[in-house]
């Protein structure tokens, strides 16, 4: 076997080739890390947003979108009195009729962006148990409370959404009364209104949905209610299944992320292969000389793999550093909220495996071509 120092010294024989190999592998690994982190982040926030104990009542035919759904206001009291097994806290039934609306919101600084608005009463806290009011008060008339990540959705700083600041819905001014968290869910990017206010501002006389929290009952009890009350034209779906279906809606975006990453990565890989072919082709005579003094082709092949792995794993390390500096912890807004990019063990493992494969499998064709000529022919090469 050739000493490891031989492969290490060969790395610096051609600095431009080394930079190309390290840079190309860093780009490929960084793109794959970003793609995996994006997809995992979106899936994670959507899967965490729904509870298996919650059931959503929607308008029939609108099971795939709460925003398009319309439910009569009287359906809330009908569901509360007719469905058995609903959770009760201090004698209050855990049921929340809500208005969900997507519209542009303007901050006092003049920034205007789309935001997901939710009109609720205080009973919403009984069904959305991940929500915690961290500062201020629940919104009353003329007030809103904002999620911890709502500022990222609007593209402003946290100070712009501080308690006492104003937001504008059209020509109407609303005061921020409180802030809440709902870790790992899309709720944390929403703006919650007093339900009557949002109904007035959007000129609605109906709800978007009714969320129920079950204690002893199951979804069959809710479905039975929807069948018995055909006049209300309701459909039911478990909250976690609703967000699971919503995740499928974003599948094309995830695919486009992978396609974009794959196309850019393919360019970097082919560029790297060309560099390796040129570099190894210039060393055919060197490899033949080493064979003539007793080194086997296997030993030479392993040394070439070691050399390539050193370069690609260096690029992988650079990619991890860049991902840690610029990707980890970043929040990405999308239509129903925001999600956070996290360097989970799965993301790190994907990047590491990519670096190893680039340095091993990617080196096979040029290395084989370099060692393939017979010894006499290789020694005569220029």
Task: Kindly describe this structure.
With 382 residues, this protein is of the alpha+beta class. It folds into two domains: 4-48 and 250-380, no CATH class; 61-232, no CATH class. It is 50% helix and 21% strand. It is built from 14 helices and 16 strands. Strands 5-6-11-8-10-9 form a six-stranded mixed beta barrel. It has a two-stranded antiparallel sheet with strand order 2-12. It has a two-stranded antiparallel ribbon with strand order 3-4. Helix 1 (4-11) packs across helix 11 (297-326) and helix 2 runs antiparallel to helix 8 (239-249). It is elongated, with a radius of gyration of 30 Å. The two termini are 26 Å apart.
Q: Give helix % range.
A: 40-55%
Count of DSSP helices?
Answer: 14
Biggest sheet strand line-up: 5-6-11-8-10-9
In the predicted model, the low-confidence regions spanning at least 5 consecutive residues are: none
Taken together, the total number of domains comes to 2
Order of helices and strands: HHEEHEEEEHEEHEEEHEEHEHHHHEEHHH
User: Tally of extended strands?
Assistant: 16
SSE diagram, text form:
Elements: H1 4-11, H2 15-49, E1 54-59, E2 71-72, H3 74-82, E3 88-89, E4 92-93, E5 95-107, E6 112-120, H4 124-127, E7 132-136, E8 143-147, H5 150-154, E9 166-169, E10 172-181, E11 191-194, H6 195-202, E12 206-207, E13 209-213, H7 219-228, E14 234-238, H8 239-249, H9 251-281, H10 284-292, H11 297-326, E15 331-334, E16 337-340, H12 345-360, H13 364-371, H14 375-380
Parallel strand pairs: 6-11, 8-10
Antiparallel strand pairs: 1-13, 1-14, 2-12, 3-4, 5-6, 5-9, 5-13, 7-10, 8-11, 9-10, 15-16
Helix pairs in contact: 1-11, 2-8, 2-9, 2-11, 2-12, 9-13, 11-12, 11-13
